[in-house]
Amino acid sequence: MTQDDIARTINRYLELASVAEGADIAVLYADNATVEDPVGSTPHVGTAAIAAFYDSVRSPNRTIDLITLRVSGETAAFHFRVVTVVDGRTITVEPIDVMTFDDRGRITSMRAIWTTEDIVVS
Amino acid sequence: MTQDDIARTINRYLELASVAEGADIAVLYADNATVEDPVGSTPHVGTAAIAAFYDSVRSPNRTIDLITLRVSGETAAFHFRVVTVVDGRTITVEPIDVMTFDDRGRITSMRAIWTTEDIVVS
Protein backbone atom coordinates (compact mmCIF):
# COMPACT_ATOMS: atom_id res chain seq x y z
CA MET A 1 0.00 0.00 0.00
CA THR A 2 1.53 3.30 -1.14
CA GLN A 3 0.68 6.90 -0.43
CA ASP A 4 -0.91 7.01 -3.90
CA ASP A 5 -3.16 4.09 -2.90
CA ILE A 6 -4.27 6.03 0.17
CA ALA A 7 -4.91 9.15 -1.92
CA ARG A 8 -6.98 7.12 -4.38
CA THR A 9 -9.05 5.61 -1.57
CA ILE A 10 -9.75 9.04 -0.10
CA ASN A 11 -10.83 10.43 -3.46
CA ARG A 12 -13.10 7.40 -3.91
CA TYR A 13 -14.43 7.91 -0.37
CA LEU A 14 -15.29 11.55 -1.07
CA GLU A 15 -17.02 10.59 -4.35
CA LEU A 16 -19.11 7.96 -2.58
CA ALA A 17 -19.79 10.05 0.51
CA SER A 18 -21.95 12.49 -1.45
CA VAL A 19 -24.21 9.94 -3.14
CA ALA A 20 -23.73 6.30 -2.14
CA GLU A 21 -25.57 3.99 0.21
CA GLY A 22 -23.83 3.36 3.52
CA ALA A 23 -22.95 -0.23 2.61
CA ASP A 24 -21.00 0.97 -0.43
CA ILE A 25 -18.96 3.37 1.69
CA ALA A 26 -18.43 0.82 4.49
CA VAL A 27 -16.59 -1.55 2.13
CA LEU A 28 -13.70 0.92 2.12
CA TYR A 29 -13.25 0.20 5.84
CA ALA A 30 -11.50 -2.72 7.56
CA ASP A 31 -13.74 -5.16 9.44
CA ASN A 32 -13.29 -3.70 12.91
CA ALA A 33 -12.78 -0.10 11.85
CA THR A 34 -14.01 2.86 13.88
CA VAL A 35 -15.71 6.08 12.77
CA GLU A 36 -15.84 8.99 15.24
CA ASP A 37 -17.75 11.86 13.60
CA PRO A 38 -17.43 14.37 15.12
CA VAL A 39 -14.53 13.60 17.45
CA GLY A 40 -15.89 13.36 20.98
CA SER A 41 -19.04 11.48 19.93
CA THR A 42 -19.50 7.74 20.42
CA PRO A 43 -17.54 5.85 17.75
CA HIS A 44 -19.31 3.57 15.25
CA VAL A 45 -17.47 0.24 15.24
CA GLY A 46 -17.56 -2.37 12.49
CA THR A 47 -19.00 -2.58 9.00
CA ALA A 48 -22.71 -2.69 9.89
CA ALA A 49 -22.54 0.25 12.30
CA ILE A 50 -20.46 2.27 9.86
CA ALA A 51 -22.89 1.58 7.00
CA ALA A 52 -25.81 2.62 9.23
CA PHE A 53 -24.01 5.82 10.22
CA TYR A 54 -23.48 6.89 6.59
CA ASP A 55 -27.09 6.07 5.77
CA SER A 56 -28.19 8.23 8.70
CA VAL A 57 -26.40 11.32 7.39
CA ARG A 58 -27.25 10.96 3.69
CA SER A 59 -28.87 13.88 1.92
CA PRO A 60 -30.13 14.00 -1.68
CA ASN A 61 -28.62 17.38 -2.59
CA ARG A 62 -25.02 17.26 -1.47
CA THR A 63 -21.67 17.93 -3.09
CA ILE A 64 -18.32 17.17 -1.52
CA ASP A 65 -14.99 18.60 -2.66
CA LEU A 66 -11.48 17.99 -1.45
CA ILE A 67 -9.61 21.13 -0.39
CA THR A 68 -6.29 19.77 0.91
CA LEU A 69 -4.94 16.24 1.39
CA ARG A 70 -1.82 15.24 3.30
CA VAL A 71 -0.60 11.64 3.60
CA SER A 72 2.26 10.46 5.80
CA GLY A 73 2.99 6.84 6.60
CA GLU A 74 -0.32 5.06 7.10
CA THR A 75 -2.15 8.22 8.18
CA ALA A 76 -3.97 10.80 6.08
CA ALA A 77 -5.59 14.12 6.94
CA PHE A 78 -7.82 16.00 4.56
CA HIS A 79 -9.72 19.25 4.61
CA PHE A 80 -12.87 19.12 2.53
CA ARG A 81 -16.07 21.02 1.82
CA VAL A 82 -19.56 19.56 2.21
CA VAL A 83 -22.36 21.61 0.65
CA THR A 84 -25.93 20.48 1.24
CA VAL A 85 -29.05 22.19 -0.09
CA VAL A 86 -32.10 21.66 2.11
CA ASP A 87 -35.37 23.56 1.70
CA GLY A 88 -33.67 26.24 -0.36
CA ARG A 89 -30.93 26.86 2.19
CA THR A 90 -27.27 26.06 1.53
CA ILE A 91 -25.46 24.46 4.44
CA THR A 92 -21.67 24.40 4.23
CA VAL A 93 -19.17 22.74 6.54
CA GLU A 94 -15.46 22.17 5.95
CA PRO A 95 -14.15 19.52 8.38
CA ILE A 96 -10.68 18.07 8.67
CA ASP A 97 -10.84 14.27 8.75
CA VAL A 98 -8.03 12.01 9.92
CA MET A 99 -7.88 8.42 8.66
CA THR A 100 -5.56 5.51 9.32
CA PHE A 101 -5.07 2.55 6.97
CA ASP A 102 -4.06 -1.09 7.19
CA ASP A 103 -1.51 -2.76 4.93
CA ARG A 104 -4.27 -3.67 2.46
CA GLY A 105 -5.24 -0.03 2.10
CA ARG A 106 -8.48 -0.33 4.02
CA ILE A 107 -9.50 2.45 6.40
CA THR A 108 -9.00 1.36 10.02
CA SER A 109 -10.19 4.58 11.67
CA MET A 110 -11.79 7.87 10.74
CA ARG A 111 -11.99 10.86 13.07
CA ALA A 112 -13.84 13.95 11.83
CA ILE A 113 -12.77 17.22 13.42
CA TRP A 114 -15.51 19.84 13.22
CA THR A 115 -18.28 21.24 15.39
CA THR A 116 -21.67 22.79 14.75
CA GLU A 117 -19.93 26.19 15.13
CA ASP A 118 -18.18 25.47 11.82
CA ILE A 119 -21.49 25.20 9.93
CA VAL A 120 -22.36 28.12 7.66
CA VAL A 121 -25.96 28.52 6.48
CA SER A 122 -26.73 30.84 3.57
CA MET B 1 -10.53 23.43 29.13
CA THR B 2 -12.68 24.81 26.30
CA GLN B 3 -12.32 24.78 22.54
CA ASP B 4 -11.23 28.42 22.80
CA ASP B 5 -8.46 27.36 25.21
CA ILE B 6 -7.25 24.81 22.65
CA ALA B 7 -7.37 27.41 19.86
CA ARG B 8 -5.35 29.83 21.99
CA THR B 9 -2.73 27.18 22.73
CA ILE B 10 -2.38 26.35 19.04
CA ASN B 11 -1.98 30.00 18.10
CA ARG B 12 0.65 30.34 20.84
CA TYR B 13 2.34 27.17 19.57
CA LEU B 14 2.55 28.53 16.03
CA GLU B 15 3.95 31.85 17.29
CA LEU B 16 6.63 30.05 19.30
CA ALA B 17 7.39 27.43 16.64
CA SER B 18 8.86 30.04 14.31
CA VAL B 19 11.24 31.67 16.79
CA ALA B 20 11.45 30.08 20.25
CA GLU B 21 13.93 27.72 21.86
CA GLY B 22 12.75 24.14 22.16
CA ALA B 23 12.31 24.36 25.92
CA ASP B 24 9.84 27.22 25.52
CA ILE B 25 7.76 25.18 23.08
CA ALA B 26 7.99 21.99 25.18
CA VAL B 27 6.23 23.66 28.14
CA LEU B 28 3.03 23.60 26.10
CA TYR B 29 3.19 19.78 26.24
CA ALA B 30 2.14 17.41 29.03
CA ASP B 31 4.96 15.54 30.82
CA ASN B 32 4.74 12.30 28.85
CA ALA B 33 3.55 13.79 25.59
CA THR B 34 4.57 12.43 22.19
CA VAL B 35 5.60 14.25 19.01
CA GLU B 36 5.59 12.29 15.72
CA ASP B 37 6.81 14.60 12.95
CA PRO B 38 6.30 13.45 10.29
CA VAL B 39 3.89 10.60 11.02
CA GLY B 40 5.73 7.33 10.51
CA SER B 41 8.97 8.56 12.11
CA THR B 42 10.04 7.59 15.62
CA PRO B 43 8.07 9.64 18.17
CA HIS B 44 9.84 12.00 20.58
CA VAL B 45 8.54 11.25 24.08
CA GLY B 46 8.65 13.58 27.08
CA THR B 47 9.66 17.18 27.67
CA ALA B 48 13.42 16.86 27.15
CA ALA B 49 13.11 14.90 23.90
CA ILE B 50 10.44 17.28 22.60
CA ALA B 51 12.56 20.34 23.42
CA ALA B 52 15.56 18.76 21.67
CA PHE B 53 13.43 17.99 18.60
CA TYR B 54 12.27 21.60 18.23
CA ASP B 55 15.84 22.85 18.70
CA SER B 56 16.96 20.45 15.96
CA VAL B 57 14.56 21.93 13.40
CA ARG B 58 14.96 25.63 14.26
CA SER B 59 15.88 28.04 11.48
CA PRO B 60 16.61 31.76 11.80
CA ASN B 61 14.51 32.90 8.86
CA ARG B 62 11.14 31.24 9.25
CA THR B 63 7.55 32.41 9.31
CA ILE B 64 4.58 30.24 10.22
CA ASP B 65 0.96 31.06 9.45
CA LEU B 66 -2.24 29.25 10.31
CA ILE B 67 -4.41 28.38 7.30
CA THR B 68 -7.28 26.39 8.85
CA LEU B 69 -8.00 25.22 12.39
CA ARG B 70 -10.65 22.72 13.46
CA VAL B 71 -11.25 21.70 17.07
CA SER B 72 -13.60 18.95 18.25
CA GLY B 73 -13.66 17.53 21.75
CA GLU B 74 -10.06 17.28 22.96
CA THR B 75 -8.61 16.98 19.45
CA ALA B 76 -7.50 19.68 17.05
CA ALA B 77 -6.31 19.57 13.46
CA PHE B 78 -4.72 22.51 11.72
CA HIS B 79 -3.36 23.23 8.29
CA PHE B 80 -0.53 25.74 8.34
CA ARG B 81 2.22 27.19 6.20
CA VAL B 82 5.92 27.15 7.10
CA VAL B 83 8.16 29.39 4.99
CA THR B 84 11.90 29.19 5.54
CA VAL B 85 14.51 31.23 3.68
CA VAL B 86 17.88 29.48 3.43
CA ASP B 87 20.74 30.67 1.22
CA GLY B 88 18.38 32.82 -0.84
CA ARG B 89 15.94 29.97 -1.51
CA THR B 90 12.40 29.95 -0.15
CA ILE B 91 11.25 26.58 1.18
CA THR B 92 7.51 26.20 1.76
CA VAL B 93 5.63 23.31 3.32
CA GLU B 94 2.00 23.24 4.46
CA PRO B 95 1.44 20.27 6.83
CA ILE B 96 -1.72 19.24 8.63
CA ASP B 97 -0.95 18.64 12.32
CA VAL B 98 -3.22 16.73 14.69
CA MET B 99 -2.98 17.42 18.44
CA THR B 100 -4.72 15.98 21.48
CA PHE B 101 -5.05 17.78 24.82
CA ASP B 102 -5.44 16.87 28.48
CA ASP B 103 -7.98 18.45 30.82
CA ARG B 104 -5.47 21.15 31.77
CA GLY B 105 -5.13 22.18 28.14
CA ARG B 106 -1.63 20.77 27.68
CA ILE B 107 -0.76 19.00 24.43
CA THR B 108 -0.60 15.22 24.95
CA SER B 109 0.28 14.26 21.38
CA MET B 110 1.22 15.90 18.12
CA ARG B 111 1.26 14.09 14.77
CA ALA B 112 2.44 16.04 11.72
CA ILE B 113 1.08 14.80 8.40
CA TRP B 114 3.35 15.81 5.52
CA THR B 115 6.13 14.32 3.43
CA THR B 116 9.12 15.67 1.58
CA GLU B 117 6.97 15.55 -1.57
CA ASP B 118 4.91 18.41 -0.10
CA ILE B 119 7.95 20.72 0.05
CA VAL B 120 8.07 23.50 -2.53
CA VAL B 121 11.38 25.26 -3.21
CA SER B 122 11.42 28.56 -5.10
From TrEMBL, chains A, B:
Signal peptide: none annotated. Residues 12-109 form the SnoaL-like domain. This is Nuclear transport factor 2 family protein. It comes from Prescottella soli.
